[in-house]
Design a protein that fits this description.
The two termini are 32 Å apart. This protein has 251 residues and is of the alpha/beta class. It is built from nine helices and seven strands; from the N terminus they run βαβαβαβαβααβαααβ. Strands 3-2-1-4-5-6-7 form a seven-stranded parallel sheet, sandwiched between helices. Helix 4 links the parallel strand 4 and strand 5. It has one domain: Rossmann fold. Helices cover 50% and strands 15% of the residues.
Amino acid sequence: MKLENKVAIVTGSGRGIGRAIALAFAKEGAAVIVNDVDGEVAEAVVKDIAGAGGKAAACIAAVGSKAGAEALVDTALGKFGTLHILVNNAGITRDAMLHKMTEEEWDTVITIHLKGTFLNTQAAVRIMMENQYGKIINVTSSSGTRGNVGQSNYSAAKMGIVGLTLTWAKELARHKINVNCISPSANTRMVEAIPEKLRAQVMERFARESVTQRYGTPEDVAPLAVFLASDDSYYLTGQTIGARGQGMWVL
């Protein structure tokens, strides 16, 4: 029980990687705030956790606003009394080539990913600083660290998250708060939104380059999040770590 007596917020945990992390955290003993904009899927995850003997509560809120960030922290405090872990996982895509991308498409993705990560963490660290303990886990992407066609907004946000991770690790170390970043590769709804022909090419290329010879699943990513959320990661901060089968440095 690596996370026994810990309280965690996992944004965007109604589906995909967020859901897998929330379930893994609960299995390791954490009380989990399950966040999603879809109340039905969030409550389903809470039910799954409770059914397995774990503790969870739902917070139905969109990330990217101060009100949403405060709702997440207030739910953790109201339901479980404190907060130890924050996973900034929620995300969306609005893909378009540079010359076709609208201002709205740019703003929406930057708000959810980059501004949301900033506001959620700003709200959470106030509790963590009081406790002199905390684990912040951000989520980036190879689209940010290496770029990707049609994803100016997403790439900018995801590389920005790496910068936030590096800065916060330096700012928060004296408060015994670790800040790290995961760069996952897993088949999620965002991957499935890629046009079928292009998605098949991506999967084929990844399998060819991967030492595991397959594309990942959300469940492949969750163990790394558990490690970074646990006291086992006490010596790691400011790191961006790939959860992927490719034998290459994430950056």
